[in-house]
């Protein structure tokens, strides 16, 4: 059991819970706040949406212990909120609910839209609602209700993105209410090298996997190229540098597209290389300011010769994922996905070693598309089953 302290609907809460307990279960089972509904329990449907430090978050994929020191607001906590009161009235008058199961999460998201995007039109409202599923209404009444409140509030000042706190990922916090300073873009600034803020920082990973692949080049040549950060970044689909590397410190971006979710992680990393052992470790942290997804990672790689002109690269990945993309953290899917990415990386690395750069015309993809890789994996399995059946 782990002791946690947090604020729920303005009330301080202290207690103990299992590390595996999701915030939604903690709210419903321990605090009897059953307005937070559970349906998919994978972060997809949005029924469990609450506010964590002022930002909408899926409570079914955020662990309660990761909300140490956070301020959580559930649908029951908006009793005196003027915007929520207007939305409830509009939902009633515009017939924006039928069974009502999705309504608590829908209202929390609607409030965020009204405050954050005061000039939004109906098309933008529909886009913003894409993470909240309703199987009854067809969304027409919901969109009308939100647009009605937006029209009533035209001219009201929008909420600054800088007020929004980190969504869900608060592991290791020891001081209640402690929050990182926020930039104007609403993302926590990258820590300077050596501060210990990059990597896991002692946190327990919720994703851990290992993989190996071989490139057909001598170990010294592979080791030298892996020390050239810009060349390595070109080999990784979706990765790009936002500034030249300096003393092992790197700042960059990773573009990720998962179905309708498109994110652009910005972050930093520190790379430590051990020359004699031919191994290195990357300590990184990144965040997507739009979706609220965040990741902290430690990636260790080790080289070993498998012949005079071949080198095996062993990689261990440990990650803490939080936010909407955490739903894809199931080990089986991620391990297969990482294996496919390793294949792409190995091919591009070999092209870099042979020609000085990867063949971008042969591999034009500039962003990471996990669903496309998983679809390819499923197709391969069907082909394998078909061959066995013949």
UniProtKB/TrEMBL annotation:
GO terms for molecular function: 2 iron, 2 sulfur cluster binding; metal ion binding; oxidoreductase activity. Keywords: 2Fe-2S, Iron, Iron-sulfur, Metal-binding, Oxidoreductase. Signal peptide: none annotated. The keyword Iron-sulfur applies. Coiled coil: none annotated. CDD domains: fer2, SRPBCC_5. The keyword Transferase does not apply. It comes from the Bacteria. Pfam families: COXG (PF06240), Fer2 (PF00111), Fer2_2 (PF01799). Residues 2-78 form the 2Fe-2S ferredoxin-type domain. InterPro entries: 2Fe-2S-bd (IPR002888), 2Fe-2S-bd_dom_sf (IPR036884), 2Fe-2S_ferredoxin-like_sf (IPR036010), 2Fe-2S_ferredoxin-type (IPR001041), 2Fe2S_fd_BS (IPR006058), Beta-grasp_dom_sf (IPR012675), CO_DH_gsu (IPR010419), Diverse_Oxidoreductases (IPR051452). This is 2Fe-2S iron-sulfur cluster-binding protein. It comes from Ancylobacter mangrovi.
């Amino acid at each position: 059991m782990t002791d946690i302290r947090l604020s729920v609907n303005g009330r301080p809460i202290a207690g103990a819970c299992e590390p595996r307990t999701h915030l939604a279960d903690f709210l419903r089972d321990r605090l009897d706040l059953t307005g937070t509904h559970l349906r998919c329990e994978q972060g997809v449907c949005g029924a469990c949406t609450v506010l964590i430090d002022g930002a909408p978050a899926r409570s079914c994929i955020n662990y309660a212990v990761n909300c140490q020191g956070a301020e959580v607001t559930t649908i029951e906590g908006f009793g005196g909120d003027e915007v929520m009161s207007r939305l409830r009235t509009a939902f009633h008058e515009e017939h924006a609910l039928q069974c009502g199961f999705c309504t608590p999460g829908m209202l929390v998201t609607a409030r965020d839209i009204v405050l954050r995007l005061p000039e939004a039109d109906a098309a933008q409202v529909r886009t913003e609602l894409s993470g909240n599923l309703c199987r009854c209404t067809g969304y027409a009444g919901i969109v009308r209700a939100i647009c009605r409140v937006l029209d009533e509030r035209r001219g009201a000042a929008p909420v600054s993105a800088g007020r929004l706190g980190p969504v869900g990922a608060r592991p290791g916090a020891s001081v209640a209410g402690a929050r990182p300073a926020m930039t104007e873009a609403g993302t926590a600034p990258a820590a300077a090298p050596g501060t210990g803020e990059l990597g896991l920082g002692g946190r327990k990973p919720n994703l851990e996997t290992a993989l190996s692949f071989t490139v057909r080049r001598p170990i010294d040549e592979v080791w030298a190229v892996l020390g050239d950060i810009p060349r390595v970044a070109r080999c990784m689909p979706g990765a790009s540098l936002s500034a030249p590397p300096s003393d092992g410190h790197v700042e960059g971006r990773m573009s990720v597209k998962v179905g309708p979710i498109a994110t652009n992680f910005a972050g930093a990393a520190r790379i430590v290389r051990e020359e004699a052992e031919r191994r290195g470790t990357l300590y990184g942290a990144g965040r997507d300011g739009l979706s609220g997804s965040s990741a902290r990672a430690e990636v260790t790689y080790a080289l070993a010769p498998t012949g005079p002109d071949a080198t095996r690269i062993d990689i261990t990945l440990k990650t803490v994922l939080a936010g909407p993309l955490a739903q894809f953290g199931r080990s089986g899917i991620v391990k297969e996905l990482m294996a496919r990415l390793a294949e792409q990386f190995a091919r591009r690395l070999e092209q870099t070693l042979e020609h000085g750069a990867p063949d971008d015309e042969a591999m034009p993809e500039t962003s990471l598309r996990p669903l496309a890789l998983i679809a390819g994996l499923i197709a391969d399995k069907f082909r394998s089953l078909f061959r066995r059946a013949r």
